[in-house]
């Protein structure tokens, strides 16, 4: 596939290069594998309170965002001291998903050491600093959760000793030993950098050079069907571990400060290993809570493109018990990958799967849609 002609530069935000949102500079903090230590969480919480809007926002790539930043230089200093900016030249390309329960419960292999090794390997390669900010790596422990998240390059464990290499979600048939997984992913990413032209994602580029780069690391094999557990559901897991959902992916600084070590997931939830960490907070831990089905973009006043305060309106439909994403404009930022009702703000109301309804009848329209999900 020929690479598209890009009319604008890749402007994915980071900490050193923030995005100018309607409510002020927005900074995105990369968390390879979603891992955030308790000490780092406390630093991020203080930054949100002292320098931002008082909240920490989860992203669909298991990263964090701080909004309305008042002093970017001070933010950089604090995050660097906390070890959250280990390689400033590579900060926007440290996009690595990891199975969030790996090493805690289930899975065929513990991919946490691989996440750390891949992060170090990416940061050690000057050429990989030229990866687009949208390029995504994934390391799946075999349960198939992050393998379905559309990563450009993914290694999925088959057992403790080997795994499958996926390009844009498709199995390449290459079987790569666990000890070679990081080297294979780095070599494939380097091949993409050399040959991508103006492509931002692997799906937009010629895959042949990337596939060629994998030959030294693995052997082709018959492709067998692989099952997927999907995202870990909200609620207790085992041994005191719990998956919790912040309302609309937004954590108050006060709550984050008390959680201890956390793993942020690509589904805007957090994995908590300390028993009782979610007690007394607004985190949702009941898998039957109807609000879990409703997500929303930041909306007004945070985004100048939004036609409505979508989060306020989304609160009004949370009890409808329907899976829906409420967006302030046609970009539909933050929408989930799975099936959902499409709710987009327009002049005077919303379009629900293309049909206009007023704000006052939005909940009614969604309840009517519930029977079709």
What does this 3D model show about the protein?
The model has no long low-confidence stretch (mean pLDDT 92). This protein is an alpha+beta fold and 373 residues long. It has 8 helices and 21 strands. It has helices at 38-51, 72-81, 112-123, 181-195, 208-214, 253-258, 310-315, 362-370; strands at 19-21, 24-29, 35-36, 55-58, 64-66, 96-98, 137-140, 153-157, 162-167, 170-177, 219-220, 235-236, 242-244, 250-252, 262-264, 270-272, 294-296, 324-327, 341-346, 349-352, 355-358. The chain folds into 3 domains: 17-83 and 231-285, Sulfite Reductase Hemoprotein, domain 2; 85-229, Sulfite Reductase Hemoprotein, domain 1; 290-370, Sulfite Reductase Hemoprotein, domain 1 (2-Layer Sandwich). The longest helix is centred in the middle third of the chain and has 15 residues, at 181-195. Residues 27-81 form the Nitrite/Sulfite reductase ferredoxin-like domain. Keywords: 4Fe-4S, Heme, Iron, Iron-sulfur, Metal-binding, Oxidoreductase. It comes from Prauserella oleivorans. This is Precorrin-3B synthase.
Indicate the topology:
Layout: E1 19-21, E2 24-29, E3 35-36, H1 38-51, E4 55-58, E5 64-66, H2 72-81, E6 96-98, H3 112-123, E7 137-140, E8 153-157, E9 162-167, E10 170-177, H4 181-195, H5 208-214, E11 219-220, E12 235-236, E13 242-244, E14 250-252, H6 253-258, E15 262-264, E16 270-272, E17 294-296, H7 310-315, E18 324-327, E19 341-346, E20 349-352, E21 355-358, H8 362-370
Parallel strand pairs: 6-7, 7-8, 17-18, 18-19
Antiparallel strand pairs: 1-2, 2-5, 3-15, 4-5, 4-14, 8-9, 9-10, 10-11, 12-13, 13-16, 15-16, 19-20, 20-21
Helix pairs in contact: 1-2, 3-4, 4-5
């Amino acid at each position: 596939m020929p690479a598209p002609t890009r009319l604008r530069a890749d402007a994915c935000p980071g900490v050193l290069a923030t995005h100018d949102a309607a409510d002020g500079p927005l900074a995105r903090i990369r968390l390879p594998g979603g891992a955030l230590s308790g000490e780092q969480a406390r630093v991020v919480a203080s930054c949100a309170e002292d320098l931002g809007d008082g909240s920490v926002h989860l992203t669909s790539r298991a990263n964090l965002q701080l909004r309305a930043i008042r002093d970017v230089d001070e933010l950089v200093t604090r995050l660097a001291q906390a070890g959250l900016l280990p390689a400033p030249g590579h900060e926007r390309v440290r996009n690595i998903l990891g199975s969030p329960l790996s090493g805690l419960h289930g899975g065929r292999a513990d991919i946490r050491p691989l996440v750390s090794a891949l992060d170090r390997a990416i940061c050690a390669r000057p050429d990989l600093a030229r990866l687009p900010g949208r390029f995504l790596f994934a390391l799946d422990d075999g349960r198939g959760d992050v393998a379905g998240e559309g990563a450009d390059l993914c290694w999925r464990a088959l057992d403790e000793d080997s795994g499958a290499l996926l390009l844009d979600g498709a199995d390449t048939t290459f079987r790569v030993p666990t000890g070679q997984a990081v080297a294979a992913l780095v070599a494939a990413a380097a091949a993409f950098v050399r040959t991508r032209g103006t492509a931002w994602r692997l799906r937009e580029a010629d895959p042949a050079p990337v596939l060629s780069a994998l030959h030294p690391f693995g052997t082709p094999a018959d492709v067998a069907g692989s099952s997927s557990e999907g995202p870990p559901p909200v609620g207790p897991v085992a041994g005191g571990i719990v998956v919790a959902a912040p309302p609309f992916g937004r954590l108050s600084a006060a709550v984050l400060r008390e959680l201890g070590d956390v793993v942020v997931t690509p589904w805007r939830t957090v994995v908590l290993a300390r028993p009782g960490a979610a007690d007394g907070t607004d985190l949702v831990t009941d898998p039957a809570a109807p609000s879990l089905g409703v997500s929303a973009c930041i909306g007004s006043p945070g985004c100048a493109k939004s036609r409505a305060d979508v989060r306020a309106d989304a609160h009004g439909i949370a009890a409808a018990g329907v899976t829906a994403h409420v967006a302030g404009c046609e970009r539909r930022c933050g929408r989930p990958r799975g099936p959902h009702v499409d709710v987009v703000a327009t002049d005077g109301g919303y379009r629900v799967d293309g049909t206009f309804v007023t704000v006052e009848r939005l909940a009614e329209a969604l309840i009517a849609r519930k029977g079709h999900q």
